[in-house]
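Input (structure):
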């Protein structure tokens, strides 16, 4: 899955969520409109029934209403004086009907509701109410509900976009991390693989014309290249684990780890005529992953040895500092510019001096391990006066 597919999935999720919420809002709005309209209509019917029950004459109807009466034993019809001729005809027709209620048109697009009642004395009464106020209130209710639904739909779109972004974010992060790991692997493995392949080709060619004892040096170089390649792969795996997974909650003696690292790197240092030693006073307990911490210290020592001249010194000092455990890797080599410290901690940043891998993935790896363990990596030094890299971790 690529970024375009993730964006398409996010947009589709937003559209589907907004559509579902929009349908729900539409149904709820329609239901509210119907129920409110019925309630107002029933209220008007109850009002008309009360008017017919209490009416004594046709001259004083409530506002917006017209009364009509036909007395017992006569065809004469009395109608409120303000009634229009059309409305008078509507009421005369209503008085000929049985008790009923209906809506009709009183001319000039003037809707009215007519209700007819027969009294016990034989008289017939009819009332007509103007429906314009009711229709106007229904129209206003419809507009209000429409505005509310549009606002709700806009809120639903915003909420759906936020939820979709949060839902897709882990996938996007995983995709970015995958691409970053592939980029790291491609960048770091390209050179050692090329060197290894070239050396193997040369070795094959020389093996055809030279005896085996003359190829010892080339074989040792080939082994060294494979070891370097393995270290790069280990760096990549440790960096990935440190960045994506929390370290295990186990107690680790950092002084003991530092001693192991110095012991394992001592042969490499002696080959370069460099004095490598460790200083520690007692246990220095931290919590985390022993393998990751060992790899971080190994990277710092490798960096220091690679940037110290023949006869130089590299010292690993493990100590307690302000309630934390500090592992200082100090050398008297080419040094560094403190102003470039932040840049040198970036992935694939490189210094201008030395032969080690100080400014490749190594320092970025150490910084990731430190952060994963709740610590930090401090850098100090000056050009021509060596450098000090401090792995600072919370103490147990």
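Output (sequence):
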């Amino acid at each position: 899955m690529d970024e375009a597919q993730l964006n398409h999935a996010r947009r589709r999720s937003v559209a589907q969520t907004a559509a579902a919420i929009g349908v729900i809002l539409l149904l709820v709005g329609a239901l509210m409109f119907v129920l409110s309209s019925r309630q107002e209509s029933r209220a008007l019917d109850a009002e008309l029934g009360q008017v017919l029950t209490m009416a004594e004459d046709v001259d004083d109807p409530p506002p917006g209403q017209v009364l009509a009466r036909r007395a017992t034993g006569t065809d004469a019809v009395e109608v409120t004086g303000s009634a229009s001729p059309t409305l008078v005809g509507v009421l005369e027709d209503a008085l000929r009907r049985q008790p009923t209620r209906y809506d009709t048109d009183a001319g000039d697009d003037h809707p009215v509701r007519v209700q007819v009642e027969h009294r016990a004395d034989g008289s017939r009464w009819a009332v007509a109410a103007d429906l314009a106020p009711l229709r106007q209130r229904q129209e206003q209710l419809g507009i209000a509900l429409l505005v509310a639904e549009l606002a709700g739909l806009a809120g639903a779109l915003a909420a759906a976009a936020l939820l979709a972004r949060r839902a897709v974010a882990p996938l996007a992060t995983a995709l970015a991390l995958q691409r970053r790991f592939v980029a790291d692997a491609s960048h770091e493995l390209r050179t050692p693989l090329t060197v290894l392949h070239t050396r193997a080709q040369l070795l094959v060619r020389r093996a055809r014309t030279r005896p085996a004892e003359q190829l010892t040096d080339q074989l040792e170089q080939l082994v060294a290249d494979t070891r370097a390649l393995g270290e790069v792969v280990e760096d990549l795996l440790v960096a990935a684990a440190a960045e994506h997974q929390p370290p295990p909650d186990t107690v680790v003696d950092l002084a003991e780890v530092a001693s192991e690292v110095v012991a394992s790197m001592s042969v490499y240092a002696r080959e370069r005529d460099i004095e490598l030693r460790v200083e520690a006073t007692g246990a220095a307990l931290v919590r985390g992953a022993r393998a990751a911490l060992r790899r971080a210290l190994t990277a710092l020592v490798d960096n220091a040895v690679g940037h110290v001249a023949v006869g130089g010194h590299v010292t690993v000092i493990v100590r307690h500092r302000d309630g934390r455990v500090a592992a200082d890797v100090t050398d008297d080599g080419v040094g560094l510019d403190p102003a470039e410290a932040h840049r040198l901690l970036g992935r694939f940043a490189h210094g201008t001096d030395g032969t080690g891998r100080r400014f490749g993935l190594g320092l970025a790896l150490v910084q990731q391990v430190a952060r994963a363990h709740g610590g930090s990596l401090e850098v100090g030094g000056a050009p021509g006066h060596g450098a000090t890299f401090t792995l600072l971790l919370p103490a147990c």
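Notes: The first strand starts at residue 65 and ends at 70. The two ends are 43 Å apart (CA to CA).
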